[in-house]
Amino acid sequence: MSSHPTFSPHDLAPALEGLHPELRILGPEALAGRHPGEDPGNLKAGVMAQPASTEAAAALISWCRANHVAVVPQGGLSGLVGGGTSLAGQVLLSSNRLNRILAIHVDEETVEVEAGVTLEALQAALAPHGLTTGIDLGSRGSATIGGMVSTNAGGILAFRNGVMRHQILGLEAVLPSGEIFSDMTRVVKVSAGPDLKQLLIGGEGAFGFVTRVVMKLESIRQHRAVALLGVADAARALLVAARLRRHPALMLEAAEMMWPRYVRDHAALKGFDLSWLEGGSALLLVEVSGESAEAAVTHLEEALADVWEEADLKGGLVAQSSDQARRFWDLREDSGFYFAAFPDAPSFDVSMPPSLLDRYVADLTERLSAIGDGYEAYVYGHIADGNLHIALAAPGPLLADLKAKVEDGVYAGILASGGSFSAEHGVGLDKRSAYLSHVDPVKQVLAREIKNLLDPERIFNPGKVPF
Amino acid sequence: MSSHPTFSPHDLAPALEGLHPELRILGPEALAGRHPGEDPGNLKAGVMAQPASTEAAAALISWCRANHVAVVPQGGLSGLVGGGTSLAGQVLLSSNRLNRILAIHVDEETVEVEAGVTLEALQAALAPHGLTTGIDLGSRGSATIGGMVSTNAGGILAFRNGVMRHQILGLEAVLPSGEIFSDMTRVVKVSAGPDLKQLLIGGEGAFGFVTRVVMKLESIRQHRAVALLGVADAARALLVAARLRRHPALMLEAAEMMWPRYVRDHAALKGFDLSWLEGGSALLLVEVSGESAEAAVTHLEEALADVWEEADLKGGLVAQSSDQARRFWDLREDSGFYFAAFPDAPSFDVSMPPSLLDRYVADLTERLSAIGDGYEAYVYGHIADGNLHIALAAPGPLLADLKAKVEDGVYAGILASGGSFSAEHGVGLDKRSAYLSHVDPVKQVLAREIKNLLDPERIFNPGKVPF
């Protein structure tokens, strides 16, 4: 490649002005002091382009391609693996002005939506129609639909509804060539040649910039009951979840597990009374819906009584108010509490076939303690689909050889067991070594070749997956 | 490309013998007299390779690549668009000895299975565990899992469970290079880089030969009730389906609609008594499951009585025996009855957003009658996901200009409405002109480039999609 002029952020912003009437450019001054979101490197480019239309995004991308300027697609800046980090000389391409809900098809339970709408805003717009999204996750207030597409987000409901890939019917994107790729089908049955929008789903910005999608929806089930249960292990937690899934009058809405160290430290920090819990137990949070709030509570209490002995429950509380339910959920969703004690604690997001979880956690514990005294992990996650979040109870970042040992400890056996080293956060920058070690080499080569095909100059999210 | 030696079927079979101990070769003599399945061209190659392992398939493919011999992947020969047709000098690569069910994970509700297992055989193996597949279709006795992956099959349950793409967790395939692509995850949450197995799902044999998959399963719901209802239009049928979907004690298992001409001619052929049906009505077949057979029937009868007036039903029967239920289903599933009167009748498989179905069928009727007197269509299909099967009440094949007029009549407006010109049958050879006319040109180019990347010599299923 010949050498290209490089732009400083101060040169770049004026060069982008006027490319398209629906394109707003923010330069270093406008971005100064903005919160960078989950990754301190997110705004380092110092220049952000905010298209308000697909055509404006295409104009920006075409210019960047012609001028060899790298583009970093961004959504709600809630990514956890550095997939949106940037460098000076690059342009941030933000979806935040692509924020229109284009059409709600109430009878069909589908919605056409621009990529920059947050999950929470979409849910709020759907609620008056009795509808909601089939995917839900803790960062709903900031995560955008486009970002969720790009990381193939999973969240709380994946055990029943699958992940974003299973909810997206149609998709429009601007490719690195500047061309608009349009496949806005709103039907579930399509067998009309290769389904190339799948490259954009979970593509982490490597193959283009998602501008709009058609998503499946489902009816809101508003009558809920929540319980917090002491469990000995994942097998017992899964038994409870399975029983609730099959209950004729209930629908299981969440099954979230927290292992003992997470429970102990988080409850202590929050002043959460665990005197009812048999010491050293893990916690299982279950949420169900029913025909009425009373029915949900009654059926849940009965179902838990029925399964109590077989599941060897170590105590339990059914929330008596929505406030109490919220406090149960906070134990699970305020999961970053450990960063106060352990800044930059190395964290992981794996999935394992659920029946192998207990053995996996036992082996993990052993492998970490073999690294050195006191090496322990906080473990919690979406038990019914086998997705565990894991954080080392130690400050980060780790030195290279220690980092490698910890990663080996976390990832050992996952590929052979049919799990994944990244369940729902993506690869980004942070999981580069895991990708290189735990993805089939044939697939890695092919991913790189497809990247070269779509983005021969690698202007889209350079340095990120595929490597 | 330099000229390559071409093989006759009689030369080719001996040349393939001995490539791998787990590879069986059938030559022209062995194939003579075999039923070609749904397409008379399926066995024209005259040579079939039957690997019993992934490695044997890889050996065959590597040889074919080295010798510039085309490979036509085949499953149960039940494809309806000529996706498996072949020519002399090509090799049929059949999955029918890849017929092992490798592991049933009962608690996780997943199965690892080789590609050549038929849907019916898989369902039979799962039944003792109380499990079944989340996809079901009429050709279950011959359709293989690998073929269903390759066409992204949909069937009866897609309105709730989605299509094959939504059921496949893991996949292994041999690429045109002869390399083995392995991604046998058995978890639903994976965000570990580009998900390239999606190219093989719905890939119609263009990108490789699927050898094994991991599939999601669901619990069997064995207590069923079936009704046949007279309906004025799709809107009313969808109202009934929506009501049954929301019934707290029932689960909707099927909602299949047959338009009046289909009803009239098929009932007459079968001697099916329709004296209870208001003349000229369409028929809606619904199947539900409940806690017991009695509960299913009782709740279904009550629910139909409740919705009767609002849905303006034109008569109805609830099956009183499994025999009667089977006769109801035969009206829908023996859908090829019209080929007796109209050999090779041109047939189509489209999907439309359900709320647009009535207008679509009205417009279709008008467009066909504008072609000439008596041009009418049989219309029937999976109403809840908007998938219509359409057959012209005229013998085929049509001359080119008439064919173009009919295709225009069938496909007009589908793309702009967010539907698909091929819902679940694929593109194959037969839907080539529809693909060229109704797929985004940007996507067509990209599909061709990916094809060139994976299969530069185009040895895999040449002449089929992508064109």
Describe this protein's structure.
Two copies of one chain form a homodimer. Chain A is α+β, with helices and mostly antiparallel strands and 467 residues long. The first copy, chain A, folds into four domains: 9-97, Uridine Diphospho-n-acetylenolpyruvylglucosamine Reductase, domain 2 (2-Layer Sandwich); 101-219, 2-Layer Sandwich (Uridine Diphospho-n-acetylenolpyruvylglucosamine Reductase, domain 3); 224-333, Alpha-Beta Plaits; 337-428, Alpha-Beta Plaits (2-Layer Sandwich). Chain A is built from 17 helices and 17 strands. In chain A, the strands form three sheets. Chain A has a seven-stranded antiparallel sheet, with helices on both faces. In chain A, strands 5, 6, 7, 8, 9 and 10 form a six-stranded antiparallel sheet that branches. In chain A, a hairpin with a 4-residue loop joins β16 and β17 (387-392). Chain A is globular, with a radius of gyration of 23 Å. The two termini of chain A are 18 Å apart. Chains A and B meet through β9 and α17 of A and β9 and α17 of B.
